[in-house]
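Quick one from the shared queue. A colleague (R.T.) flagged Hikeshi-like domain-containing protein as missing a structural entry in our internal table.

Convert sequence to structure tokens.
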Amino acid sequence: MNFDFSLQPNEAGTNSNAVTQVPPNGASQHQSPQPFGIIVPGYAVRTNFVPVDSSGMKFGLTLTCPGDIATPLASVHELVFFTLPNIPFPPNYGVLCYWQITAAVSQTPDLPPPSTGFELLGSIRPDRPSSVFHTGWSEHEQLLEVAQNNTPVTLTIGVSLEPLENLQNIAGSSVSASKLFVAQKIASDLFNFMQSFDTGTGGAGQMVVPNNIFERWFKRFEARFQRDPNFFLKSED
């Protein structure tokens, strides 16, 4: 997915559906609260999202690791995301929350630092203004490559207001794609294991393997999974 949550000059919004920040009683307009909050378990709540364009429909938050977050991101399994009180949603709109991990420095001269690109975390809506998002970072191959060897990274949380009719379709396709990716990796591991035992006597396009090949693969898979739950997601290069 390609989303631009890079910070832009804070211009006055022109979109009638933009988030309206309503200050608490007695507070002046410039003291109005930020629209969203996020919690990384073990750390203080963060509400310093800022608009990233003039539409008032996109917001961003950048955290450093190590720095703002000391824990390796692969060990962060959940995030809590919510809207703050006194922040009304535009009619018939919800919120999609995305993440991106970018290495702090490039490991290859003349190339930008590696990045995962933006991926969907989850969504909230007027009737459910908070949610616990499962990150899946411990199983994310590209994240593990970007953050390998404890490389310093930045975590960008992007927030986009979207019509409710789009929310379910976008969130559903992202979950399906993630499950398909994991299934493909497991199937590939099984195929490669079976291929290594092929006797070569089955002719073109056929594979002949021992009868207990699946049992042997599963025992091997379990043993490797106990040592490293992400082994089958890593590149085979």
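Residues 29-164 form one domain.
The radius of gyration is 22 Å.
Added to the table.
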